[in-house]
Amino acid sequence: MEGLGYSYKLDVQIEVQSDCYFSLKLSLMETSSPIQMTANYHPYPEIDLHYQDWPLDLLMDYIVNKHHAYVRKTLPHLLDLSAKQVSAFGLSHRELHQVNQLLNKISIELTMHLEREEVVLFPLIHQLLAIEAIGGPLVSHPRSCLRNPVATMEGDHGLIVHFFEEIARLTNHYEIPADADDSYAVFYTYLQELESDLEQHVHLENDILFPKAISLEEKYL
Ligand SMILES: [Fe+2]
Ligand SMILES: [Fe+2]
Prior knowledge:
Elements: H1 28-31, H2 56-89, H3 95-133, H4 147-170, H5 182-220
Bound molecules: fe (ii) ion (FE2) (2 copies).
One fe (ii) ion (FE2) is lined by residues 63, 67-68, 114, 117, 201, 205.
């Protein structure tokens, strides 16, 4: 993306060793929990539920059902609202054009990112938990299966957070202009809610889920 110092990628591939965890003949179908989407979620209020103490399978289900479902439900509405603000106020508020571009990039990046987690990384962690349940060890792949996909996910998080920092700067931290109408105000409010939700979502993954999964894997390498 111009001016932001990041290369922008469109593929959903992440590097995982082909033999990861399969030596124990545990298939994704046998070890992964089915993903259920919850439609009616609102990001507030967020309270400390002692996530640090949760089992990792529960934490992953929570992340998918709460945060991933929220993103999928909210993004189409936000993109629609964003386009409407550009049409209505784009001449008097030039920053709306850049906000709209950034939001579209966030949408593409975040949609791929959720897919990567649900199709690759979370099933790997579910398999690791299944291996732990039967006492390990990982017999045929002494190298880490998680480090590459985790590093990719953390990179995605950094890029998406950076896009939101740009939006916050452009909008003067979501300050609603004096000439804004209700639709404009709702757009900034929802945009800020998405940023807040993402902050908590990234915290659960970067600070709790990923380090715990890596250290669990290290027990069996
Ligand atoms: Fe996630
Ligand atoms: Fe993530």
